[in-house]
UniProtKB/TrEMBL annotation:
Residues 24-79 form the SMB domain. InterPro entries: SBSPO (IPR039942), SBSPON_C (IPR056801), Somatomedin_B_dom (IPR001212), TSP1_rpt (IPR000884), TSP1_rpt_sf (IPR036383), TSP1_spondin_dom (IPR044004). This is Somatomedin B and thrombospondin type 1 domain containing. Keywords: Disulfide bond, Glycoprotein, Signal. It comes from Mastacembelus armatus (zig-zag eel). It comes from the Eukaryota.
């Protein structure tokens, strides 16, 4: 967009310099074309003040053979999108899964405007009721974790408006992780890069992952302090490892990049 503003000023300067010598029969009026279109041409002054064949297509910006008035007659329009939709439910209940949100294109880019950003975003999740609204049973598997951002969207009150239990936090020292945690480059897996051996991480246990206001799957409350426990990142089942429990605290006090939630 900055380039187009600069070129618009240049276009006005060229038009002023041409003055009465410019023929109104040429120019880009009514000729704004998409992509590189070699038929989208006329004979007029170019931006470099050379008179001859010039173009009014989006490709002329790269080849620098636009007609002098291209950036005035064919201003750049960047892609415009709607806001993100609300997150969908998890694709599968009672197990680590994926949720999605989307946004719509409100205006397509034109005249070399900025292209549209990605329109779909995925993130790991887990729901605690099946399709019949029955609570899922807990098992003794690994701790399933995701970024703290997921916890911010959790409800803070029950269906009657009563505040839910605030939960608690468990600190762990990371012992190992698989290399897949840093190999993924999808937006919803970026948080996994901060899972690093030797660091202390905080994992929040909150409703609805917390059962009976006392525990989350894999939180290590029943394990010995030195026992290695298993964890798995939701959104990338190949990102997993072991950690050792340090302590249970009322609130998580780790840096944001080392703060996660049980799901």
């Amino acid at each position: 967009m900055i380039l187009h503003i600069r070129e618009q000023k240049k276009s006005r300067t060229v038009a002023s310099a041409l003055g009465n010598n410019h023929s109104v029969s040429g120019g880009c009026l009514g000729k704004c074309c998409k992509a590189r279109d070699l038929s989208c041409l006329t004979t007029d002054w170019r931006m470099d003040r050379v008179y001859g064949t010039c173009y009014c297509d989006e490709g002329c910006v790269r080849t620098k053979d636009c007609c002098f008035d291209y950036f005035t007659v064919c201003p750049a329009n960047d892609c415009a999108t709607s806001d993100w939709s609300v997150w969908s439910g998890c694709a599968k209940p009672c197990q680590p899964s994926v949720r999605v949100r989307i946004r719509q294109i409100k205006r397509e880019p034109s005249n070399s405007g900025e292209p549209c950003p990605r329109l779909t975003e995925h993130a790991g999740c887990q729901e605690y009721k099946d399709h019949q609204a029955n609570h899922c049973g807990l098992n003794s598997g690994p701790a399933f974790i995701t970024s703290m951002e997921f916890g911010k969207g959790r409800p803070k009150h029950d269906s009657y408006g009563n505040p839910l239990h605030p939960g608690f936090c468990v600190e762990f020292t990371l012992e190992s992780r698989t290399p897949h945690c840093t190999m993924e480059n999808r937006p919803h897996t970026h948080w996994m890069r901060y899972i690093t051996e030797g660091f202390t991480v905080c994992v929040a246990c909150q409703p609805p992952a917390m059962r009976n206001n006392s525990s989350c799957q894999g939180d290590g409350q029943e394990a010995n302090k030195d026992a290695p426990l298993h964890w798995q990142a939701v959104g990338n089942p190949q990102c997993s490892g072991t950690w050792k429990k340090v302590q249970k605290t009322q609130q998580c006090n780790c840096p944001p990049q080392h703060s996660f939630v049980f799901i």
